Amino acid sequence: MTRELRAAVVGVGTFGRHHARVYRELEQQRGLGADEANVRLVGLVDIDLDGPKPVADRLQVPLVGSLDELPEMPDIVSVAVPTSVHRRVAEPLLRSGVSCLVEKPVAGSTSDARALVGAAEAGGAQMQVGLLERFNPVTAAIDKLGSPPQYIEVHRLAPFAGRAMDVGVVMDMMIHDLDLVSHIVNEEPVDVQAVGVSLASDYEDVANVRITFPSGCVANVTASRVAQQRMRRTRIFSHHAYLSLDYDRREARIVRRRQRAEDWSALFAELAARGADLEPGRVNGAGPDFESLLQTERVPISDSEPLREEILALLCAVRTGRRPVVGGMEGLRALRLAERVLADIRGRQPARG
C-alpha cells in the first residue's frame, strides 16, 4: 500500500466542507477500491469555530483556529478561504513543502499567483488549482471532437445564491470557462471584448466576453449569477463537427456530417438549380432528408464526482512527482485572462458624474 498522506482543510465554508467530506470518504474507503488514495483527514482549520463545528463533529475530526494547532502537520492542504487571503495562507505552506489544492481563482491578482507558483517551486511542493470543470466527466467528451475548434459558445447561469460576494461573476463563475476555453484552444487571445452589469452586488453579476485567438477561433462566454434558471451549456464547433455539452443534465452529443464536402456542394447546387426552399428536415416535403445527412452520437458520461477526481489527481501528483492536471501555471493563465475581461468591462463603463 502507498504511504499514507495526511490532509487538512483551511476554510470550512461552502467549498471547504465538501473538500473535507471527500477526504474523509476516501479515508473510509481504504480497502474498498480507494487504496491508491490512502489519505487521512487530520483536521479542519477556520477562524470561526462555531459555524463549522457540525461539520467537524459529523466527520469526527478536530476543528482548530490555526494550522499550528492541528494535532499533526499535514502533507496536503485544501485552501478554501476567501480569494483575498489565498496567498497569505498557501505561500508559507508551499514554501515548507506542503502541497496545496487552492480553490479558484488561484489568487487575488496575477502577482500573488506568481508568488504562489514560485513558492511551490522553492518548496518542492505540488500546487493544484480548483478549476473543477476540468475534472467534470462531461468535459472529457471534448476529446471526441478530433479537430481544432473554430467557435465556442458557453452559457453558465445560476440563480442568486448570496455567496462569494468578495468577487464578481467573472472570478466566481466565468473563470471556469475561461480556463476551459484557454485549455481547448491553447493560445493566448489577441482580442478581448467584454461587458458586465451589476444588479445584486457591488461587482458585476452578469458578464459576456468575446475572445479572439490567433488561429481565428472565437469564443463567446456568458455568465450570470442572477438568472431565473440554472444553465451550464457549452457548444464547440469545428470544421466538420460540433459538440454540445450540457453539464446540468450530464449529457454530451457530437454531430458530424456523413457526406464529404463535395457531396454537400453538389447537393446544394442541385437544390439551387431547382429553386428549392430549404425547410426543416426536407426540401419542399420531397427532397433529401437533411437529418439523414448528419450523424449524431451520444457520448457516454461517467458518474464520477468532479471534486473526488480533483483530489485524487492531486494525491497522484504528490506521490509521483508529476505536474498536477491543473497546476499553478494553468491557474495563472485563467486568472490573467479573467483580469483582461474585468479590465475591458471597466473600460466600457460610463464615467460617474
How many strand units? Answer: 14
Q: Order of strands across the widest beta sheet?
A: 8-9-10-7-11-12-13-14
Give me the CATH architecture of the domain at 5-133 and 305-325, please.
Answer: 3-Layer(aba) Sandwich
Q: What global shape is seen?
A: globular
- Report the total helices: 8
Q: N-to-C terminal Cα separation, in Å?
A: 67 Å
CATH topology term of the domain at 5-133 and 305-325: Rossmann fold
Average of pLDDT: 90
Instruction: Summarize the helix and strand pattern as letters.
Output: EHEHEEHEHEEHEEEEEEHEHH
CATH class of the domain at 5-133 and 305-325: Alpha Beta
Largest sheet: 8 strands, mixed
Whole-number radius of gyration?
A: 23 Å
What helical percentage do the residues reach?
25-40%
List the uncertain runs.
none
Name of the CATH superfamily of the domain at 5-133 and 305-325: NAD(P)-binding Rossmann-like Domain
Supply the helix-strand structural class: alpha/beta
Classify the beta-strand content into a percent band: 15-25%
